[in-house]
Amino acid sequence: MIIMITGTRTGIGRALAEYFLESGHQVIGCSRKPSDIEHARYQHHEVDLTQNSQVKKMFREVRQEHGHLDALVNNAGTATMNHFMTTPDETARRIFDINFFAVLNCCREAAKLLRKSSEPSTAILNISTVAVPWALDGQLVYTASKSAVEQLVRVMSKELAGFGIRVNALGLPPVRTVLTRTVPQPKIDALVERQAIRRMCTMSDLVGPVEFLIGPQSAFVTGETVMLGGVH
Ligand SMILES: NC(=O)c1ccc[n+]([C@@H]2O[C@H](COP(=O)([O-])OP(=O)(O)OC[C@H]3O[C@@H](n4cnc5c(N)ncnc54)[C@H](OP(=O)(O)O)[C@@H]3O)[C@@H](O)[C@H]2O)c1
């Protein structure tokens, strides 16, 4: 499969890229800064996904080189922990730009290439968070942006079903990455205590669900957000 994963320089995106490369797939990754992943089947685009002209250029290059895509994982994203009263307008808009509008724009461009795939069922997977069902205080803008993504999943799954493209989301509990580096340990521990499975989610906990949701075994699954760790 040719899999595009956004935000592959660090964290979850990088772990996913390495996993799918090891599994024999071709991976197209991107982020604003260069990647140090070196692999014959890996290609990196330096792009700011909040700039739609750069998004379009990246997908144009992918079309020219590969002609199609088999899966898109919208992973790139950001978070801030802040009371909404002290979250400036620019910060709120910046979070929506990467967490929602970049996802919307990547889906629009990717759908054109997923339609050209010879796979019987192609997939878009968006990364969300357990902070949405938990409605965590201090994460109003972050959770609102990911809620918008989960609504995108529900509507887009219907609009793309006719093209054989499935659209789902995976909601993650806390995972150790640069994104969570600044969250104090007691706060992380308290979140883990809220999960039914009371241990920290690792990269190996999430690669299986990602593989399932973009692969042929989930050919009849669309419009869903799957939460990891037991959050309800
Ligand atoms: N870690 C957690 O506990 C956790 C929990 C739930 C959900 N998530 C979600 O998982 C996803 C990945 O998070 P992570 O923890 O792996 O974060 P991370 O380590 O900060 O990685 C984010 C990646 O996105 C890229 N990126 C950020 N802004 C970008 C932009 N404007 N254009 C292009 N690339 C951009 C970054 O690379 P550059 O800096 O080079 O652009 C980086 O590679 C996010 O959607 C996050 O909301 C994470």
Summarize this entry quickly.
Helices cover 44% and strands 17% of the residues.
Q: How many domain units? A: 1
- Element order: H for helix, E for strand: EHEEHEHEHHEHHE
| Bound ligands, named by name, code or SMILES | NADP nicotinamide-adenine-dinucleotide phosphate
Mean pLDDT: 97
- Widest sheet, order of strands: 3-2-1-4-5-6-7
Distance between the termini: 34 Å
CATH homologous superfamily designation: NAD(P)-binding Rossmann-like Domain
Level-1 CATH class name: Alpha Beta
Annotated CATH architecture: 3-Layer(aba) Sandwich
Low-pLDDT ranges: none
Shape: globular
Task: Please bin the fraction of helical residues.
Answer: 40-55%
Largest sheet: 7 strands, parallel
Question: What is CATH's topology name?
Answer: Rossmann fold
Number of helices: 7
Count all strands and give the number. 7
* SS-derived structural category: alpha/beta
**Cα-atom Rg, whole angstroms?**
17 Å
Topology:
Elements: E1 2-6, H1 11-22, E2 26-31, E3 42-46, H2 52-66, E4 71-74, H3 89-114, E5 122-129, H4 131-134, H5 140-161, E6 165-172, H6 185-194, H7 203-214, E7 225-227
Parallel strand pairs: 1-2, 1-4, 2-3, 4-5, 5-6, 6-7
Residues 7-13, 30-33, 47-50, 75-79, 98, 127, 129, 172, 174-175, 177-180 line the site of NADP nicotinamide-adenine-dinucleotide phosphate (NAP).
How does this model look, in words?
The protein contains seven helices and seven strands. The protein has helices at residues 11-22, 52-66, 89-114, 131-134, 140-161, 185-194, 203-214; strands at residues 2-6, 26-31, 42-46, 71-74, 122-129, 165-172, 225-227. The mean pLDDT is 97. A seven-stranded parallel β-sheet has the order 3-2-1-4-5-6-7, sandwiched between helices. With 232 residues, it is an alpha/beta fold. It is globular and about 45 Å long. Residues 7-13, 30-33, 47-50, 75-79, 98, 127, 129, 172, 174-175, 177-180 line the site of NADP nicotinamide-adenine-dinucleotide phosphate. Residues 7-13, 30-33, 47-50, 75-79, 98, 127, 129, 172, 174-175, 177-180 line the site of NADP nicotinamide-adenine-dinucleotide phosphate (NAP).
